[in-house]
Amino acid sequence: MTDVSAIIWTEKYRPKSFDEVHGQHDIVSKVRAFVEQRNLPHLMFTGPAGTGKTSLSLVVAKTLFGDAWRENFLELNASDERGIDVVRVKVKDFARTRAIGDVPFKIIYLDECDALTKEAQQALRRTMENFTQTCRFILSANFSSKIIDPIQSRCAIFRFKPLPDADLKSMAASISKKEGISITDEALDALVEVAGGDCRRLANLLQSASALGDKVTPEVVFTLSSHARPQDIQKILELAIAGKFHESRSLLLDVMLKYGMSGLDVIKQLQPAVWKLAIPDRAKVLLIDKCGEIEFRMVEGADEYVQLEALLAYVTMAKQS
């Protein structure tokens, strides 16, 4: 087996070509058409983390520039360098010089550009206009609403979606086969559930789980990810609905301690589990509303144990409403 401590799987298994980018077929086909024509507009990739935004940007650069892609590609993480000086100095200095090779433009990739300050975004819009002849921008953001409209109007916007379960399972099976790891079907389902459409999270979890042994089990996956087993979360709610508040509370505390979960982690798992309860739809809607209220209180600084007990007490009374 490969020494997992010496590699980072998210980099090792990063796509090398358009055909290797999973789960974003429509986006890949359109971007590939731009690249084949060598007529690339400014691009904006938006969507959740781990869905292929950075990978597709690197594939674009490597396909366009070949071996010289590093000299013609500048990658900046805007969450680390988010001030106006970055745009005025680093970006502008790179953009004003011509590309090496037969491609008429360079590429600047700004990761997490929704973290740029408004002043930096205003400076960026002028830079995008002034250096169109020598440079193209690829902007990556989790939330496009945080990007000012003038920048959005200058870009072709592509919205990435979480990867389907089938693609995640295919990736996990491929990695486990290449690394010589034994993974059960139940562990594969657990990986997919915990990853939630994020292939980077899946690769990191699989690497961490494999470091503990050659066989990956659901228990290992849930423990490493601070994610409770769905059966335990469902049982907590069912005990509360049955009026067994003390048993429900005890099981909740045991689960939180066993998996190292925070109050917010618990709420995020409790909320979807509400829909599986055998209670009237009106009661389910009220519980969902209560989950939102409890989450808000925690974010504002309320004690998570008190708030979770309050939620269980509300669940206990929900069947009577």
Describe the structure.
The structure is a single chain. By secondary structure, the chain is α/β, with parallel strands linked by helices. It folds into three domains: 24-159, Rossmann fold; 165-224, Helicase, Ruva Protein, domain 3, CATH 1.10.8; 230-318, Zinc Finger, Delta Prime, domain 3, CATH 1.20.272. Helices cover 55% and strands 9% of the residues. It has 15 helices and seven strands. It has helices at 9-12, 25-37, 53-65, 84-95, 118-130, 149-152, 165-179, 185-195, 199-211, 218-224, 230-241, 245-259, 263-273, 281-299, 304-318; strands at 43-46, 73-77, 106-111, 135-141, 156-159, 182-183, 215-216. A five-stranded parallel sheet has the order 2-3-4-1-5, sandwiched between helices. The longest helix is centred in the last third of the chain and has 19 residues, at 281-299. The protein is globular. The N and C termini lie far apart (57 Å).
